[in-house]
Design a protein that fits this description.
Layout: E1 26-30, H1 34-46, E2 51-55, H2 59-70, E3 80-84, E4 95-98, H3 114-131, E5 136-139, H4 144-155, E6 162-164, H5 168-182, E7 189-190, E8 193-194, E9 202-203, E10 209-210, E11 213-214, H6 229-250, H7 255-269, E12 274-276, E13 279-281, E14 292-294, E15 297-300, E16 303-307, H8 314-333
Parallel strand pairs: 1-2, 1-4, 2-3, 4-5, 5-6
Antiparallel strand pairs: 7-10, 8-9, 10-11, 12-15, 13-14, 15-16
Bound molecules: nicotinamide-adenine-dinucleotide.
Residues 30-36, 56-58, 61, 99-101, 103-104, 113, 117, 120, 123-124, 140-142, 144, 165, 169, 197, 252-253, 257 line the site of nicotinamide-adenine-dinucleotide.
Length: 336
Amino acid sequence: MTGTPEVNPVIDPEIPAAVMPDKGSKLAVIGAGAVGSACVYASMIKGVAREYALFDINESKVKAEALDIAQGSQFAPVSTVEGSSDMAVIKDADVVVITAGAKQKPGQSRLDLAGATINIMKDVIPKAVEQAPNAIFLLVSNPVDVVTYAGLKISGMTPDHFFGSGTVLDSSRLRYLIAQHCGVSAQTVHAYIAGEHGDSEIPLWSSAIIGAVPLLQWGETVDGRKLDESLREAIHHEVVNSAYSIIEGKGATNYAIGLSVAQIVTTILRDERRVLPVSTLLDDWMGISDVCMSVPTLVGRSGVGRRLVPVVTPDEYRGLRASADSIRHVASKFGM
Ligand code: NAD
């Protein structure tokens, strides 16, 4: 043996590109508050993407949130997490989730938030589109239907690539409550809330199913009650008021919306073609047009596709039309 050790042939900086792993997909989240951070956290745990980028104007907060999540990455599918106050961090993202906004204060309705949030969108969306022109955009900031409608116009994008999380969270809350009352898992309940993500939303009871049984024919609940109109009304009331009571108790709702967003993004990136009640621009859906609101919608890698037409009662249909009018009324106040 002479003095110089042999170079280990395994440590070769010239690894051919063909054996390097695929870059994978990139999820960007704008707004590193309670909701934005939970979206990244839930997505990272579920392995939704390979790269996560978090953007916020509050530099110390966004860096801290990203670092806190990244330091747990050993325990989740392989990924990277970066946080920055420079919009370039979201460059070439496949999906951009927008959660930046004014926070909903106790007692404040989602519609009260509209003006402040639309102004944030006028600043953020053009810069985000410039960095990630091929991304699918998912709006979460409230009031989500009005802000999605405004954001779509600001972005100049097509409605299939720009939509809101809508009533995906509300439908999850509805399924959770039905599951509790009926003693089944939420996964076996198929029920949708449609219309506004907010006070005028409509539970589509007549198309709800548990397993193969229409919900209206389910029979007794676990505590021996009937799923009659008064119990259904109580469940509806609880869904609508969940956000208010959670905000009252802890200042924000974030975990369930984080999981809802992780599900929507998974559906997009893996082209799962799930039916989700996302908020999209409607064009003669059951006679309803020129409003962003939630109806059961096919979602996949090319964004949103067909809006499904469920079985509805005359009352449910009237409620959906009223919900559309209520969203349009607020949008018109902001010159939309
Ligand atoms: P938060 O106050 O904790 O976070 C908002 C973040 O936005 C802050 O970190 C703030 O610095 C950032 N921000 C403000 N202006 C910005 C800008 N111009 N660019 C980048 N970042 C900016 O609020 P939160 O609890 O995270 O809620 C965020 C939004 O999500 C609210 O509008 C809330 O109502 C909404 N929300 C929606 C749903 C839903 O189902 N759609 C559910 C829960 C909350």
